[in-house]
Amino acid sequence: MHVNYGGFIPISTVDWPGRAVCTLFLRGCPVRCDYCHNKQLQNGRDCRPIEQVFEQIRSSRIAVSGVVFSGGEPTLQGDILCELARRSKKEGFLVGLHTNGVFPEVIQKLLDEHLVNHLALDIKAKWNRYDNLLRERYSAAVKETLNICKNAYHTGDLPEFQVVVTLFRGYEDEVKYISRETEGLEFVLQQGVFGMVPPLSSDELKAIADCLCRPVIIRTREDGEFHYEGTRIGRTTGERQG
Question: Which domains does the chain have, with CATH numbers?
Answer without folding.
Answer: 1-163 (3.20.20.70), 168-242 (no CATH)
